[in-house]
């Protein structure tokens, strides 16, 4: 009930046996920060910057972007915000870029691929992000990373932009954290090595399900195959978390799974560090975290990872977790 949820306001996101996580929000515009504060969010785990680029007829300038990122950082008063660099392509088009039509847009010219090609666009965004980084706790995240080379290239461009700013005597947070979305199976498989080159992971389950099971996330005809309880997804998530932790980095999640009340206890059992979701789901998530024992969930995870079907995973959770 809502009363129950109001009781966790101002509380820590901690399990009954003392495991502390962060519960943060996904946002699309600076206006959304209001909802994050209203719902007692511990930060922003995903700021989808593509909305800054959409519904207009030209690219946003460095100044426009700087103002937006700065506003979010300031309004969060020191709470962290993970700002994701442009993730356009796939189902999100920008008419003014005149991108060629593709046979398989979700497998095509999208996100970091576009940014590494159009470095003019990418550098403008990175300059704005770095300049805004002195106003709060901004972290940068690259989307749709599929290979280590892409990450190294992106980091190289970022270093170049930092160099530029230094030469211009413009201040920025030199130790700004860099993370990647793990949302492509190849990145999940290589996550042991990716973990050595970034400060954090954020698992994007929306795309990770789509790419792992070869199910277009927007195609109704095959939506019966798109399943958050798919055992392959759960095994991948476990691998990503373990590989991140072996290198001592935080593993977060910002796809829809992070806000799924049935799966939150399982993710706690796997040791996920941060959950980012729609602002309206945060208090419920904290209530769940506050009412479970991590130790019990660890035992359930072991059992779940042996199950063969999504249906059995669902039933197992239904039967064993009463929350
Ligand atoms: C995801 O893929 O899970 C994700 C959070 O990113 P988006 O939904 O913006 O693709
Ligand atoms: Mg995604």
From TrEMBL:
Binding site for phosphoenolpyruvate: 48, 84, 206-207, 217
GO biological process: one example: phosphoenolpyruvate-dependent sugar phosphotransferase system
NAD recorded as keyword: no
Any one GO MF annotation of this record: phosphoenolpyruvate-protein phosphotransferase activity
Cofactor(s) needed: Mg(2+)
Catalytic activity: L-histidyl-[protein] + phosphoenolpyruvate = N(pros)-phospho-L-histidyl-[protein] + pyruvate
EC number, UniProt record: 2.7.3.9
Active site per the UniProt annotation: 254 (proton donor)
Compartments (UniProt record): Cytoplasm
Residues binding Mg(2+): 183, 207
GO cellular component, one term: cytoplasm
Keywords linked to the UniProt accession: Coiled coil, Cytoplasm, Kinase, Magnesium, Metal-binding, Phosphotransferase system, Sugar transport, Transferase, Transport
Occurrences of domain PEP-utilising enzyme C-terminal (ranges): 5-292
Keyword Kinase listed: yes
Taxonomy, superkingdom: Bacteria
Family from the record: Belongs to the PEP-utilizing enzyme family.
Function noted in UniProt: General (non sugar-specific) component of the phosphoenolpyruvate-dependent sugar phosphotransferase system (sugar PTS). This major carbohydrate active-transport system catalyzes the phosphorylation of incoming sugar substrates concomitantly with their translocation across the cell membrane. Enzyme I transfers the phosphoryl group from phosphoenolpyruvate (PEP) to the phosphoryl carrier protein (HPr).
Protein name: Phosphoenolpyruvate-protein phosphotransferase
């Amino acid at each position: 009930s809502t009363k129950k949820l109001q009781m966790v306001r101002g509380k820590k996101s901690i399990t009954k046996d003392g495991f502390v996580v962060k519960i943060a929000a996904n946002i699309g515009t600076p206006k959304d920060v209001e909802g994050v504060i209203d719902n007692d969010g511990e930060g922003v785990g995903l700021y989808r910057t593509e909305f800054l680029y959409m519904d207009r007829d030209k690219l946003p300038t460095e100044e426009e972007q700087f103002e937006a990122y700065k506003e979010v950082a300031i309004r969060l008063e020191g709470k962290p915000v993970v700002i994701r660099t442009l993730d356009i392509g796939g189902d999100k088009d920008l008419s003014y870029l005149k991108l060629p039509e593709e046979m398989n847009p979700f497998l095509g010219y999208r996100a970091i691929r576009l940014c590494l090609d159009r470095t003019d666009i990418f550098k403008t965004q990175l300059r704005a992000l770095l300049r805004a980084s002195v106003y709060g706790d901004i972290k940068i995240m690259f989307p749709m990373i599929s290979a280590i080379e892409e990450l190294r290239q992106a980091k190289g461009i970022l270093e170049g932009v930092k160099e530029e700013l230094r030469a211009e005597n413009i201040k920025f947070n030199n130790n700004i954290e860099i993370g990647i979305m793990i949302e492509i199976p190849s990145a999940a498989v290589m996550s042991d090595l990716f973990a050595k080159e970034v400060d954090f992971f954020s698992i994007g389950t929306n795309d990770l399900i789509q790419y792992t099971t070869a199910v277009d996330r927007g195609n109704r005809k095959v939506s019966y195959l798109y399943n958050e309880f798919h055992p392959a997804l759960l095994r991948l998530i476990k691998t990503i978390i373990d590989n991140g932790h072996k290198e001592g980095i935080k593993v977060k999640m910002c796809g829809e799974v992070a806000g799924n009340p049935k799966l939150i206890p399982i993710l706690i059992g796997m040791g996920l560090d941060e959950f980012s979701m729609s602002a309206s789901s945060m208090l419920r998530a904290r209530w769940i975290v506050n009412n479970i024992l991590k130790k019990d969930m660890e035992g359930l995870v072991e059992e779940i990872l042996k199950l063969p079907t999504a249906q059995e995973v669902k039933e197992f959770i239904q039967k064993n977790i009463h929350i």
